[in-house]
Amino acid sequence: MTKAERQALWETRIAEYKKSGQSVREWCATHEDVNPKQLWYWLRKYKNQDVVSPGNSNRWLPVEIREPSSGVQGNSLLVRIGKTCIEVKPGFDPALLSQVVKVLVALC
C-alpha cells in the first residue's frame, strides 16, 4: 500500500469514526481490522488538520481574474495555493508545475 493509499484509508476511517459518535473502543470493536492504538495515533496525526471526507477531495476553488497593471510585460499566470503564490510564465514545464501544485496542496 502506498503512502497516499494509506493516508486515504485513514482519512476515511477517521471520518467514519467521527460520524459514528462512538468511543474509540466501541468503534474499534465493530471494526476488527483497527485497534484503538492505531486509531489514536491517526487521530493525533490529523488533530490540527481538517480531514477531507472521502468523495470531497476534488472540489472547485475560487479563481480571481484581475486586469494586469500597466507596468506588467508579457503574459503570465499567478497561481495561489494557500499563502503561496506561483507565477507561471510562457514556456513553463507543465509536469513540474503539476508536481509543485500537488506538493503545495498536500502541505497547505
Short description:
This protein is mostly helical.
Structural overview:
By secondary structure, the protein is mainly α. It is 45% helix and 9% strand. It contains 4 helices and 2 strands, in the order H-H-H-E-E-H. Strand 1 (77-81) and strand 2 form a beta hairpin. The longest helix is centred in the N-terminal third of the chain and has 18 residues, at 3-20. It is elongated.
- Could you spell the SSE succession in H and E letters? HHHEEH
Taking all residues together, what is the mean pLDDT?
79
Spatial extent as radius of gyration: 20 Å
Helix content: 40-55%
Question: How would you write the strand order of the largest sheet?
Answer: 1-2
Which descriptor suits the 3D outline? elongated
Characterize the largest beta sheet: strand count, sense, and whether it forms a barrel.
2 strands, antiparallel
If helices are DSSP runs of H or I spanning 4 or more residues, what is the number of helices?
Answer: 4
